[in-house]
């Protein structure tokens, strides 16, 4: 049973903002590691959470967004990389973004990542959209207090779980679900909610594709299921979709196709945790629903990652279920790839 949590309307929130959203964004733009924990008072961030919770609560569990838009995968507390993405691909409101979750955990600056994204969403609600990942149910950052941690959790519990772009591209953090026979089922999901081990919510945040399986089978992760190419084809046909876009797995080149290009995995945290030599990528969907990828390649300079925007080509459709996916690297000096849907 999901624990009953207070709805936003049941919680006290200041009538007037202590710190304007623009001020929050500008402070975070001027961020540098030695001063990262001195930017805000705790009450300022708690108020930011209150207002984000209200905004997420008003959203549907499945968002409906229109192209053009850029789609980003896992960030995992790599705040310098998040800033690099905005600097290279464009800042809101000039550029529209859909983020697929996993903003926190693993990396060192979870609090900065989620605070910046929430502030941007509140400032430009029709320009930036945030989905929930499987890590939006785990510790975000305990450098402030248990009170702040618990407040962020109440935000995570009401975040949308998936989005559909122009009625043809479905996006989520994890993957498809055998239990989702009608997309209208998503309207009946009660929020706030935690992420269970099985069912639609679990699959949307935890599921993985695997070309070695048929249908749906239990995931070795211990939550949700893995699914094969046949299950993907059936799901897309049933829901009249042309592409599934998800995150959740490290991919060497930042993006990886699966199942005759009916699904693509995007991972936006290059040099992940300082332990992988992977690139990061974001996907661009233009007005005609052609997709292309910006790939950000890490170079170690003075123990710090520097990112160079490059194009990318198709990769092979090999994935494994242990949280990492592999594929053939793009050739040197590859041009930006575009794919019509």
Automatic annotation (TrEMBL):
Sequence ranges assigned to domain Serine/threonine specific protein phosphatases in this UniProt record: 131-136
Top-level EC class as recorded in UniProt: hydrolase
Lineage summary: Eukaryota, Metazoa, Ecdysozoa, Nematoda, Chromadorea
Source superkingdom: Eukaryota
GO molecular function, one term: protein serine/threonine phosphatase activity
Protein family membership: Belongs to the PPP phosphatase family.
Region (Disordered): 313-341
Catalytic activity: O-phospho-L-threonyl-[protein] + H2O = L-threonyl-[protein] + phosphate
GO cellular-component term (any): cytoplasm
EC number: 3.1.3.16
Protein name: Serine/threonine-protein phosphatase
Keyword annotations: Hydrolase
Keyword Lipid metabolism: no
